[in-house]
Amino acid sequence: MRILGIETSCDETGIAIYDEEQGIMSHRLYSQIAVHADYGGVVPELASRDHVRKTIPLIKEVLADAGLTPKDLDGVAYTAGPGLVGALLVGCSIGRSLAYGWNIPAVPVHHMEGHLLAPMLEDDVPEFPFVALLVSGGHTMLVRVDGIGEYELLGESVDDAAGEAFDKTAKLLGLDYPGGPVLAKMAENGTAGRFKFPRPMTDRPGLDFSFSGLKTFTANTIAKEDNSPQTHADIAYAFQEAVVDTLAIKCRRA
Question: What is the pTM of this model?
Fold first, then answer.
């Protein structure tokens, strides 16, 4: 069985062809970073318009790269959510239209389930059950995976997701979009131990996360310290260390 996959949930257009025996036969990923850079974040309308421009050309590319035609496909899978509504509608409309025209099934896929099952594409496939940590711009979740379609939510962020906290903290430090990767790069030059940031919600039972307080702690630290590049790098280091350590503590607890 060969499936064409379409991902348009946010600011990246991802297209791939997966064969159950050969694995991923071809894939393309287009990032919209340049489109949104001037605005300091993802603009939903611009994201949708760019998906409209890029999705069909990328589908043609992966088909050509894999040496396939639509007749060689057995289905079309597309991200059905969560994500930006307009961006999701682009992938859904194109995916369902192509499937209808090619007379093959169209399969909606939950965004988080796609993340959960991504390890199944690796050579070293994990055995069920396993615990998955989902960390992205919009989600921070711990999930028990007992099998395909069998999931138990163990914990999640009660406010900001980890990736969201990275981006917002980057703005506090005056960094350009996309802030998270820039902050992580800055942290490489930070001094370990100069600042000690809290590990939110690790002093109580449970597996939920909270990063809004850590963001506020960072803002207060920035306000009372000097604005030198080294100080900002040290703050970035302490912030990143706190987030990663918090995630690790919760994973071990799970």
Answer: 0.90
Contacts of 232 (CB under 8 A, 6+ apart): 173, 174, 186, 222
- Per DSSP, helices labelled H in the chain are 33-36, 44-66, 85-102, 111-117, 162-172, 179-187, 212-224, 229-253
Domains 2-121 and 162-253 share a fold: yes
The CATH T-level fold of domain 2-121 is Nucleotidyltransferase; domain 5 (3.30.420)
Distance CA 243, CA 230 (A): 20
Domain borders along the chain are: 2-121, 162-253
Q: Which of 147, 151, 171, 185 is nearest to 222 (CA)?
A: 171
Question: Which among 172, 148, 170, 167 is positioned nearest to 224, based on CA atoms?
Answer: 172
Q: What does CATH list as the number for 162-253? A: 3.30.420.40
Report the C-alpha gap between 52 and 92 in whole angstroms.
11
Burial label for 226, CB within 10 Å (0-12, 13-18, 19+), is exposed
Q: Is the CB of residue 89 less than 8 Å from the CB of residue 49?
A: no
Per-residue pLDDT of the chain (254 residues; tens, 9 = 90+): 999 999 999 999 999 999 999 999 999 999 999 999 999 889 999 999 999 999 999 999 999 999 999 999 999 999 999 999 999 999 999 999 999 999 999 999 999 999 999 998 888 899 999 999 999 878 999 999 999 999 999 999 999 999 999 999 999 999 998 899 999 999 999 999 999 999 999 999 999 999 999 999 999 999 999 999 999 999 999 999 999 999 999 999 99
